[in-house]
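Lab notes, practical 5.
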Amino acid sequence: MNDIRIGSALEQIRNISAAAGSPIPEVPSEGIDFGSLLKQAIDNVNEKQKISGQMKAAFEGGDKTMNLAEVMVASQKADVSFKAMLQVRNKLVEAYKDVMNMPM
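Output from the prediction step:
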């Protein structure tokens, strides 16, 4: 695949991600610090979980400013984010096991 198609695909992914409310961070030219990228992703999932919990509690408490549709959308975003993070974790564990089982 050539650079033009890859660049175009990355641009489309960034546009879709920005429209969904989770922008994809730009990759610095010197490389990526995997630990900080993973921490940022976990913090993002945690924040969505907190917001969802707060909205649910406010709705259940009778807050008239809370709309059921908004609460459900926040809940689904948190759920999808958590499931995606769980899949990433599973792949990391699988990769770790594969590396550990490699012959020396």
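Observations recorded by the TA: The chain has a mean pLDDT of 83. The chain has two domains: 1-31, 32-104.
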